[in-house]
Amino acid sequence: MEERKSYSEYLRGKFPAKPGFIERMEKLLGKNGAKEFFEICYTKCPSSIRCNTLKMSPEELLGRLKNYGWTVRQPMKEFPEIMIVDSGPGPGDLGKTKEHLLGYYYVQEISSMLPMLALRPEAGDHVLDLCASPGSKTTQAAAMMENEGFILANEISMGRIGILNSNLERCGVMNQIVTRKEGFALCEKLLKKSSVRFDKILVDAPCSGEGTLRKSPKTFQMWNENMIKKIAKTQRKLAAAALGLLKVGGVMIYSTCTLAPEENEMVVNFLLRNFDCEIEALTLPLKFRSGVCEWEGEKFDSNVSKCLRLYPQDNDSDGFFVARIRKISDEVKNEN
């Protein structure tokens, strides 16, 4: 306990939270809630992995890991592939086992697994993962689809495409095509020059990363409101373009690893205001809080409350935001 306290104190001294960030979190959570948030942000996240069911059953993997002397548990009965490693491996050991190198499991924070649990891709679906690297969610989708159907995995960075392809190959994914294109440009091109439409789409948008402070404390230094506003414009553009590629009746997940309403509820509210779509209620096996329906004097559609906010202090996890959006028709309400 003393070691954890020392680690927390070290991080607090090196990466203090900016006053503006503290003020915003107090608006979202109240002073006591914000205090809990910042306290846990200076601690390490539990180690979690996802069994790759394309190659191995959760039962067999669990046995192999326990043979290493690791203490492993499966916190969600309905998703036995999700595991938390409580003790055993040293620093970096999760990525060094032969089971990891052979693609039997993927090192992935539980919050990162939520978008695909919400999207629920199935065998035969046509799926778009618009911002795919490093491949955690793409490989998860392929496993849920049993390598049947089709996944278009897109990434703009050549360096990150290398990581994406490596992970897809390691995990035995065979139902994907990888593209390198800016997300908005890819959607526009497919809309204008093809008849390709998707049953399910994931827009796990680039964001300010407020939910990742536990593994990336440098985010404390990078945080600023101007960055949030700039990123939010890109997010609206990506989400709107992706919605155009969704089949009528299809489902899109919009998710981020941040907690800023400008990057979350405001983007969803923008979609509701401009397109014929609806927000569907979600049930996921963690403690969530409802989406906020007002921020900085702006009121949102009441259905935005169906979005889910995952705070680190509620589940000993990273922070996350998830919205499940169903397309009603191709009608565009407003041209923006």
Describe the structure.
The protein has helices at 2-14, 19-41, 58-67, 98-101, 110-119, 136-144, 158-170, 183-193, 219-222, 225-245, 265-274, 312-315; strands spanning 47-51, 71-73, 82-87, 105-107, 126-129, 150-154, 176-179, 198-204, 246-256, 275-280, 289-290, 294-295, 298-299, 308-310, 320-332. The chain is α/β, with parallel strands linked by helices. It has a domain at 111-332: 3-Layer(aba) Sandwich (Rossmann fold). Strands 5, 6, 7, 8, 9, 10, 11, 14 and 15 form a 9-stranded mixed sheet that branches. The protein has a 4-stranded antiparallel sheet with strand order 2-3-1-4, with helices on one face. Helix 5 (110-119) packs across helix 6, helix 8 runs parallel beside helix 10 and helix 10 (225-245) crosses helix 11 (265-274).
Short summary:
The protein has a domain at 111-332: Vaccinia Virus protein VP39 (Rossmann fold, 3-Layer(aba) Sandwich).
Question: Could you give the topology of this structure?
Answer:
Elements lengths: L1 H13 L4 H23 L5 E5 L6 H10 L3 E3 L8 E6 L10 H4 L3 E3 L2 H10 L6 E4 L6 H9 L5 E5 L3 H13 L5 E4 L3 H11 L4 E7 L14 H4 L2 H21 E11 L8 H10 E6 L8 E2 L3 E2 L2 E2 L8 E3 L1 H4 L4 E13 L4
Parallel strand pairs: 5-6, 5-8, 6-7, 8-9
Antiparallel strand pairs: 1-3, 1-4, 2-3, 9-15, 10-15, 11-14, 12-13, 14-15
Helix pairs in contact: 5-6, 8-10, 10-11
